[in-house]
Task: structure prediction
Amino acid sequence: MDKDVSAGSGITTVVGRLALGITLLAFGLGHTAVIDGVSTADAVSIARYVGGVALFVAGLIALRDGDSVGGAAFSVLGALWFTWAVSAGAAGNEAGFFLLLFALVALSLTLAGGEQLGQVVYGLFFVALLLTAIAEFAGNDGLAKVGGWFAVAAGAVAWYAATAALAHWPTVLPRRAAGRGVTATG
Result:
């Protein structure tokens, strides 16, 4: 790992976030139906190979390099994306149940802490999966579209986080002091 890159922003994290970002963008845009002729079925190949295989391999490499948090997150997400892709014909309660379980993993990753952009990605991803799961249970296409937009937002943040690590862009939101005249120490 490059000495200028902090733990958690190594090349495996960049690759993992790019793979997750691309998969989330494809999944989300497929659900929103904002691009004519593009549906969720079009995201299946991306989910299988980029979100599934590539993300899983990035997780294994991260685990080998000692990044237990990123490695666990990427390998579990990779396995779940691959499972979603191979069961793409599932619908209704079966699909809703799987997406709900997938959402619980995203919630765990959100609550696990870490850096801000990672938590934003996983939080948006959790909301996307939860809304999509409810939409599957209820048969509500409108709710699935809203979930798709949350997935698009999560994908965009994941892409930004990966690109920011490579381009040395800001990755932390600036914090303001508590009140007027208050100075931060440190």
